[in-house]
Amino acid sequence: MIANLINKPSRLIIGLMSGTSLDGVDAAVVKVGGNGPETKAELVGFTSVPYEDKLREKLKELCSVEHSDVAKVCGMNFYIAEVFANAAVRAAADAGIAMDDIDLISSHGQTVWHIPVADAADWSLVRSTLQIGDISVIAKRTGKPVVGDYRTADMAVGGQGAPLVPYADFILFRDETKGRILQNIGGIGNCTAIPAGALPERIVAFDTGPGNMLIDQAVVTLSGGARSYDDGGAWAAEGRADAETVAELMSHPYFAMRPPKTTGRELFGKAFAQERIARMQANGLSDADIVATFTAFTAHSIAQSYREYVFPVAPAEEVIVSGGGAHNRTLLAMLGELLPEQAITTSEALGLSSDAKEAVAFALFANNFLFGLPNNLPSATGAAVPTVMGKLALPG
Questions:
Q1: Which residues lie across from 113 on neighbouring strands?
Q2: Are residues 198 and 342 in the same domain?
Q3: Which residues 6+ apart lie within 8 Å of 378 measured at CB?
Q4: Among residues 227, 248, 246, which one has the least CA distance to residue 292?
């Protein structure tokens, strides 16, 4: 089965991505030809399946030491795999493609905990990561081979297991004459800086900090659950960011760490957001001011990361935004003010859906896996060597 896929001129691969924003599953049907740096990808169809509110809140519990337990993790590992499988089937149907014509599924899984640096106080908390959504369940439900669990291989060779998308960014967006920064703004923000005509080893990539995570949590909390995100940045636009709070948030130790570095809900999750919301309310900030302040925090964390860790080694003329943050007009306007020398645009302007980009990336990772080719980028993750990431589950 797998050997036959290698001999095909191109493969139809469904890439599945669910990120730290916990908003749902993105499923991209991708026609992939070639392999390695010369891979060609064509987005055939894209479907986004939102998580139900009760599932989102359950996942937030799993991402919290205070509210999680082994039974919840065990059950959700299988439950969410069914959600992923259904998303893959729906994506094929929406694209007008029979599942029989799909060659392969690639799943990132749902991250529930990430330990990029060992805990000096506990010998058992070694560098590690956990993505749930068992790939065997997905394979049995869809009848297709599934590649998944990518991050662990990078960590096994000394990397932080993230960010992974920079490898695909290099394939899809490198330019011979123009320096570019690919900024994904999902739950967490991450950037890939690609100098003009760069080789992979010159790429700079890391997590810039919270993306939509704190904004979304503020919207959920302040609306009493009536809303889950700030549509178009409209609520933030009604408020005024509190400069003192933004400065305090920017003093977080994460921003002083040099790349490669990664972060997630373990640092900037629900508890962090709730504590800061309470402080801002005590200081008399309105709901709109609070959303605007978290939005400004995201913008400042991105711009400062560029100034300190990107521009000195990778000058860039363009910042290309993808992910849910690409739809937040207030956030993009703030970025434009903080980065006046860079053109701020979205991946749509270059012909690839900003919502689909990360799911497309995982289709590319699975394609390299088939050929036994490395699909990580050591300059981004800090891995000692390039390595083949992923594990295979067969349907039979």
A1: 130
A2: yes
A3: 159, 201, 384, 385, 386
A4: 246
Q: Which domain holds residue 112?
A: 2-162+356-393
Residue 78's identity, in one-letter code, is F
Residues 131, 24: one domain?
yes
- Domain identity same for 186 and 63: no
How many whole angstroms separate alpha carbon 307 and alpha carbon 309? 6
pLDDT of residue 98: 98
- Exposure string (b/e) for 33-51, b if CB count within 10 Å is 16 or more? eebeeebebebbbbbbbeb
Task: Flag whether pLDDT at 396 surpasses 90.
Answer: no
- Give me the mean pLDDT over the 389-393 stretch: 98
Q: Is the peptide bond before 163 cis (omega within 30 degrees of 0)?
A: yes
Same domain, 369 and 232: no
Number of domains in the chain: 2
Q: Which amino acid, 350?
A: L
Distance CA 240, CA 336 (A): 17
- Asked whether the beta carbons of 183 and 155 are under 8 A apart, the reply is no
Instruction: Supply the mean pLDDT for the chain.
Output: 96
pLDDT of 3 reads: 82
Across 264-270, average pLDDT? 93
Same domain, 263 and 364: no
288/286 Cα distance (integer angstroms): 5
pLDDT in tens, 23-34: 999 999 999 999
The tokens for 84 are: 């992923």
CATH number at residue 230: 3.30.420.40
20 neighbors 358 (Cβ within 8 angstroms): no
- The partner residues of 148 in beta bridges, in order of sequence, read 107, 391
**Parallel, antiparallel, or unpaired: how do β-strands 104-115 and 10-18 relate?**
parallel
Calculate the alpha carbon distances from 312 to 225, 318, 377 in Å: 43, 15, 20
DSSP 84-110: HHHHHHHHHHHTT--GGG--EEEEEEE
CA–centroid distance for 203 within its chain: 18
Is residue 186 predicted with pLDDT exceeding 80? Answer: yes
The backbone region for 233, taken as left when phi is positive above 0, alpha when psi lies in -120 to 50, beta otherwise, is: left
Per-residue pLDDT tens digits for 103-141? 999 999 999 999 999 999 999 999 999 999 999 999 999
273 and 127 fall within a common domain:
no
